[in-house]
Amino acid sequence: MLYSCAKQEFIPPNNFDTTQTAEKKTGSSQSCAQFTYVRPPVDLLFLWDNSTSSIYINDQTKQALNSVVGYISERFDYQVMMAPLMGNGNNEAVFFSRSGHNPGSGITTISQASAGTYIDQFSKVNGSGENGVQRSVDLIRNNQSNGVFRKNAYTLVITMSNDDDNSWVDPSSSFEFDPYRRDLYTKAKAHDLLCMRGNYTPSSLYNSTFSTFNSSCSNAPKLDAIMMRYVSISALFSQNSCSVSSQLTQNYVYKRISEYIYGTSYSNGFTFPPAVVVNPEEHSDHFNICRGNFTNIFDGVNNAITDAVIAHVYKYWPVTSDSSTELDESSLTVTMSNGSTFDQIPNSVSIIRDDFGKNDRDNYGNPVNGYRLVSNPTTVNTRFLPTPGEAFTGRVIELFGTAKVTYPACILTTYSEPDSYFGYVHMADRPNEATISLKINGNVIPKGGTNGWELIKSGSSPQWHSNFNIRIQGPGNYNPKTPGTLKTGYFVKLNGSAVYSNNAKVEISYSPSAN
Fold it and tell me: Which of 75, 212, 231, 420 is most deeply buried (CB count within 10 A of its CB)?
């Protein structure tokens, strides 16, 4: 009896370990173009008719102007300059902005709330001479260094007049009305504004007599504006048809300037949506005062400002901000808000990228539409039009062709991580090889053979390892996979189909070895 007890007392106990590998992670991300919205810089120049015959200064127009100011105040990084249509330099010009910037240069800084009441303080001017377009050119040209008109902003000029720009008239000519001369002047002033806008290919608009800037625009202080608009509010009906006043002059120059600025293409490929048109005679940013609706005279301005935020186009799209996330490319799906899906473009396809639009092509000139997962976490400007911006850091997809996103579209991405493969089973203690028993997902894994296990040894003894990575690239590829799953102790190596993956239950038992 004593001998029997002693024998049992010294039999080493079995070690029994159970490990459950993690399930494969999945993820999804849904966001819309406005989700990464950046408050755009918007610079406005209001030129207000201050002639003695002006009919625009009344309670309705003040209310309408305040409405515009309220419309832009929270949606944009705005700066507003107001000046009399007939005046010299910055005399009587006023300014207010979101940031509270004080430009100096003889410009009076006012509060946003007082904008509507300030317009009736402009000095009245007698006479019929009016040079509103040249005035807008001069004010924009001379108020860039002081920060009133900024580079890379949306620049909008709003001109209100009950007359028309007539500075093209040759005082020495006996023939006062010369439509040819008027057209040359109008084109020349459009050329000047476009030179300052930037992204403009000089054309036949230039005229050596009337243009402020040379034919190549090389002497123009360029704004490189994201977008420029010239919104004119004037009489578009004849005097006999104008319900507001018979003293109004049917407009030509301001109207045509609006059309030129609106319709001249951008050399960087930027386009903005069609202007919202309410009345048939109103289009291309010129609006009619003759209809007598003073309350809504700035509707066209509001529509133009709205255009400023709906033209953002994206060529990269966020998948996840977690840069450590591994993505299985084959699991990735990309679905637009209209339900359409896009395919992943194989890496074997060479793509000629269209940096300014959606016309991506392959080497054969065929359209390329779809996406590619950018291989590594990175930081990119997701937006490419009208300017690069809205940076994002993490895992992204690059969009091509019609897959590029335009506001207000949304994208849903879903994905899962790749399968994780494990080629080894860990044992904390030195094992007696003859006692090792292994099950994976309830199946007994035999010792040796094509699909069995083998103990990692040094010579004939189990080998101890520190921080050993049991995660491998995949079946048959035992190169370590990162990020690794590190263990310290002893290990059996798995062969063939014994390699296990996600959501696997691994059970190993063994007796510790005395040697």
Answer: 231
